[in-house]
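Many introductory courses stop at the sequence. We go one step further.
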Amino acid sequence: MQIRVVADPAIISQVLQMDVTSEGAAITAIAPTPIPTGSVEAPIEELTETPSADHTGADGVRINLGQWAWSFLLLVALGFGAFMLGRQINLRWGFRWASLTVAGGWLAYLYLLFGLPGSEFIIVNLGTWGILGLVFVGAILGFGLGIIWRREQRLSAL
């Protein structure tokens, strides 16, 4: 029995011959005869860069895992602090302030992650400290919204 498989892009192929008898089986590789080719040069194509569809900056700037971990730890700490402050009023305000603090920080982080205007400058030039600073500012803005919410609710109750 002889099995032949042909693959178009293959330059060199081998033929395997399998002999099966009542005594056993033997597989023999038959060396192919080289096909003479002339000196044909492949045309050189000029490659052009296509824009990437992932969420990176103009130069492929990305936030790495370490920067994500530091941002996460910062948000956990700030969220816990906001919860402890709000809990002094009551438990509901603790959860509200913590949620708004974390949401504000994550929105700032997502701003960087999606490569919106100015995010490349922060990631490249300021690095991890710039990312943490922006996440901190976003968390403080979220906490500030919670303070305004509380104030407005107290004023409307009067």
